[in-house]
Specification:
This protein is α/β, with parallel strands linked by helices and about 350 residues long. The chain is built from 13 helices and 13 strands. The chain has a single domain, classed as Aldolase class I (TIM Barrel, Alpha-Beta Barrel), CATH 3.20.20.70. It has an eight-stranded parallel beta barrel with strand order 3-4-7-8-9-10-12-13, surrounded by six helices. Bound molecules: flavin mononucleotide.
Length: about 350
């Protein structure tokens, strides 16, 4: 139904516009009890102990979550809780609101089943997010993906991450330090050993000083060298990170079917979806082969189907997340993935 009717209709509109239009409509309809029940009936995944996963002290009802960037401002948690995700990662949020990059900044590549985005952390800021999270659904695990404002210089970035952590810890179940978006100038330089160590240490110091148990993870780019990945694993071990989310979008444009002129006309941004899948799996495998015991891996990048999710889990992921696949496949994607995972267990 989604692929036949809704997707062709949605794809007439600009990607960013239809995102908010469709999610506002779903959120509105989910406030009407019979419709909400109907949506749950259609898309919710039955609680099945075989799908459940205990990770980082949290009980995930299934291994599939919605990746960061879809619900940047925690506006749709109630509606998303009807769609069967075990967890939703809100953000990336920055201390102060910011408008992000000029539009258009989100592009579909249907021939590649991909997206290119250069949103630039458009978000309404911490205060707005905190207000919404006060009323968040309790049957959903919510992660807070935190970043720095564009106009915060890198040498003061620590302050932005700590500010986000301190404002959000009463309201989210886990944290993700995001230093891997290609759309905030200079942000990915924070993945280098010394700056990264400073940020992680500062956030974890806050956690310790407040006696908190919430897991803190790091989200990485797929475009890192093996040396950089080794450094990250080393920091994860010495500083006590709970896990790594692998991966964010890529700046590579290798192997695309979309004509080169079209890709060049789109310009800068992070590529996601099917074209990211193989490389993000390689990064995941690399990390899985070298991680210390207890380090959780969350596999993201190019999941569209059950076998795609299984590949990530087989490569070493403890949990998986989706974004672009959800845009192309629609909400039944989650039920299909969970069915496939159950078939494997049978
Ligand atoms: C439009 C868009 C916005 C995104 N915004 C964020 C973000 O704010 N923070 C973040 O950590 N990742 C963000 N991402 C990256 C996704 O969370 C995910 O890591 C990436 O898209 C790869 O997964 P996919 O192939 O399933 O889309 C964004 C992705 C897209 C397509």
């Amino acid at each position: 139904m989604y692929r036949l009717f809704l997707r062709p209709l949605f794809f007439i509109f600009s990607p960013e516009r239809i995102h908010y239009l469709s999610m506002d409509s779903l959120a509105f309809l989910c406030r009407i009890a019979p419709f909400r029940l109907f949506i749950r009936f259609l898309f919710s995944v039955d609680e099945n102990p075989q799908l459940a996963k205990d990770c980082m002290g949290l009980k995930f009802s299934n291994p599939v979550g919605l990746a960061a960037g879809f619900d940047k401002d925690a506006r749709y948690l109630d509606a998303l809780s009807c769609l069967g995700f075990s967890h939703v990662e809100v953000g990336t949020v920055t201390p102060r609101p910011q408008v992000g990059n000029p539009k258009p900044r989100l592009f579909r590549l249907p021939a590649d089943q991909g997206l290119i985005n250069r949103m630039g952390f458009n978000n309404q800021g911490l205060d707005a997010m905190v207000e919404r999270l006060k009323y968040r659904p309790k049957n959903l695990i919510v992660g807070g993906n935190i970043g720095k404002n564009k106009d915060t210089p890198n040498d003061q970035a620590v302050h932005d991450y700590v500010t986000c952590f301190n404002a959000l810890y009463p309201f989210v179940d886990y944290f993700v330090i995001n230093v891997s978006s290609p759309n905030t100038p200079g942000l990915r330089e924070l993945q280098e050993k010394e700056p990264l160590k400073r940020i992680i240490k500062a956030v974890l110091d806050q956690k310790k000083s407040k006696n908190l148990t919430c897991p803190v993870l790091l989200k990485i780019a797929p475009d890192l060298t093996e040396g950089q990945l080794d450094d990250i694993l080393d920091i994860a071990k010495t500083e006590g990170l709970s896990g790594i989310i692998s991966t964010n979008t890529t700046i590579s444009r290798a192997g695309l079917k979309t004509p080169r002129a079209e890709i060049e006309a789109i310009g800068n941004g992070g590529l996601s979806g099917k074209p990211l899948q193989a490389h993000s799996n390689e990064v995941l495998e690399y990390l899985a082969g070298r991680r210390h015991e207890g380090l959780i891996l969350v596999g993201v990048g190019g999941i569209f189907t059950g076998p795609d999710a299984l590949n990530k889990l087989d490569a070493g992921a403890d949990l998986v997340q989706v974004y672009t696949g959800f845009i192309y496949e629609g909400p039944s994607m989650l039920v299909n993935i969970c069915r496939c995972l159950l078939e494997r267990k049978a």
